[in-house]
Amino acid sequence: GGRSRGWGGEKHNTTPFSSRQTMYGRRPMYGGRRQVQRMDPEASRAMMRQLAELPPLTTAVYRGGTYVAKKFPITTFLYAFGMVLMLFASGLTVSEQAHEEYADLLESSQAESAALEAAEQRHAMASRDYHQSRGFMGFGCDQRCQQFKAKVDKYDRELQSARKAQYAALSEAKSKVGVFSMYAVQEARDLFWRTFAAGKGFAKRSSMWDLLFMGIGSMGRDEGIMSFVLRFAFQVLVNFTMGLVGALVAFVWYLWGLVKSYQPDPVTAVAAFFVFTVAAASMVATTLMGLYGAVAVPVYSMARAVGQNMRIE
After folding, report:
1. Residue 274 burial (CB count, 10 A)
2. Which residues pair with 92 in a beta bridge?
3. pLDDT band at 137; cut points 50, 70, 90
4. How far apart are CA 215 and CA 235, in angstroms?
5. What's the rounded Cα separation, in Å, for the pair 102 and 81?
6. Vertex 155, ends 150 and 157: CA angle to 5°?
7. 23-63 pLDDT, tens digit each
8. What is the pLDDT of residues 150-187, one digit of tens each?
9. CA-to-CA distance for 73 and 64, rounded, in angstroms?
10. Which residues share a beta bridge with 93?
C-alpha cells in the first residue's frame, strides 16, 4: 500500500505528502479539516463553577477597593488627597496690598512682553530668509546665506535676552502673591489641562489610525465582530494609557519652572511641586480607572451572566 518499485528494484513511497501528514497525526497544509482541540470537560466544569460563584458587580468593586486600601494605605491616602485638591482647592486669597502690587508689576511687564513679541517676529523672518537662501536641500551656504545666518544668530541672542527680561518681570510680579495663591493654583490648573488635552488628542489620533489598519488587516480573516471589538477596545486603552501618562510626565516637566517663577523658598517650592504633582497624578489615575472600568464592567457582567445561566441549567 503506497509503495512501488523503481529502477534497480528500489521501493519508493507513493503516498501523497498531505496524506502522510494525516497518517502521522499532523494537520494537512492544504485542504482537509482542521483538528480542533477541545477543552477537558473537568476543566470546563471548574471554569463554569468559578463563573457561577462571581459576586455581584457592586460587591466585587467594594471588595477590590477595600483590598487596595488595606494593601496600599499611603497610596490610597495620596490619591484621595490629590482628588480633593483637584476638585475643591482654588488657592489662598491674597491681601489687597499684595493684589495691587501684583497688578501694578504685571502691567509694567507689558513692555517686556511687547519687546519679546517683536524679537520673536524678527527672529522668525531672519530664519525664513536664511533657510530660503541655502543651497539645494540645504547642503550649501554661499556668502549671502552666511549673512542671513549671522542675522539669525544676532536675533537669536536678542530673543533669549528678551525672554529672560520678560521672565524676570513676571517673576517679580508673581513673587508678591506666592506659589500657593489662587493665581499660582489657576496657572498650574491651566498647565495641567493643556497637557491633558494634548495627551487625549494623541490617544484619539492613534485610535483612529488603529481602527483603520485593524479594519484593513481583518479583511479575509475569520474573525467575529465581538473579537474585533474587544481587540480594538484593548488598543484604545493602550493608547489612552500612553497619552495620559505622557501628559502627566510633560506636566511635571514644566511644573518646576512654574513653581520657580513665583520665587518661593526651597521648602515651599518642594512642597508646592509635590502637592501639584499628586493632584495631577490623581486626576490621571481617575480617568484611566474610568476607561478601564468602562471595558471591564461589561465583560464582568457577561461572564457572571454566563455562570448564572449554567447554574440554572
Report:
1. 11
2. 181
3. low
4. 13
5. 30
6. 100
7. 444 444 444 444 545 656 666 667 666 766 777 878 888 88
8. 988 999 999 999 999 999 999 999 999 999 999 999 99
9. 14
10. none
